[in-house]
Amino acid sequence: HAPAASYRQRFPVRQPNNSFYLLPTDEVAFLQADEGVVFATDQRGARHPLTGTLTEWEQQLDPARFFRLNRSELVQLSAIVKAEPYFNNRLLVSLKHGATLTSSTALTAAFRRWLEG
After folding, report:
1. 25: closest CA among 15, 46, 40, 45?
2. Which domain holds residue 39?
3. If you ran DSSP here, which 8-state letter would residue 64 be given?
4. Which of 16, 31, 75, 81 has the fewest Cβ atoms nearer than 10 Å?
5. What sign does the dihedral 57-61-66-69 (CA atoms) show?
């Protein structure tokens, strides 16, 4: 991970006309890799396409704020409403804007520890 002072504070979101806008990390609920493209989903549920891989983004984000839930999703702590048991030692994670994510079996224990701070 990057040094604390250099964690990413905003995401550059490219537009079809090659311009881009900046999406503050505070506004992002989760990142999701979908068919080779990473999307930042904001607190309202809108999806913003990003350049790069989920692993590249994970390395640039503060691990106190963002957690890799599974192979294709990173979630921000401030977006989580609750986490409840799901089958096969996984957790169903409900977010403020209504989305639901699922932890992978392998990461559930680490996710619980992360949630507890």
Report:
1. 40
2. 4-115
3. T
4. 16
5. positive
Here the tokens at position 25 are: 């990390």
Residue 54 corresponds to which tokens in the numbers above?
């989920």
Q: Is the CB of residue 15 less than 8 Å from the CB of residue 22? A: no
Confidence label for 6 from pLDDT (cuts 50, 70 and 90): confident
Instruction: List, in sequence order, the alpha helices (H) in 22-73.
Output: 54-60
> What are the Cα distances from residue 106, in Å, to 22, 36, 71, 90, 112?
33, 22, 10, 8, 12
- What gap in Å lies between CA 75 and CA 88, rounded to an integer? 20
Q: Which helix (H) or strand (E) holds 110?
A: helix 108-115
Looking up residue 10, the CATH number of its domain turns out to be 2.40.50.1020
Q: What is the mean pLDDT of residues 32-58?
A: 95
Domain count along the chain:
1
**Residue 45 has what DSSP assignment?**
S
Q: How far apart are the first and last CA of the chain?
A: 18
Task: Calculate the average pLDDT of the chain.
Answer: 93
C-beta of residue 60 within 8 angstroms of C-beta of residue 7: yes
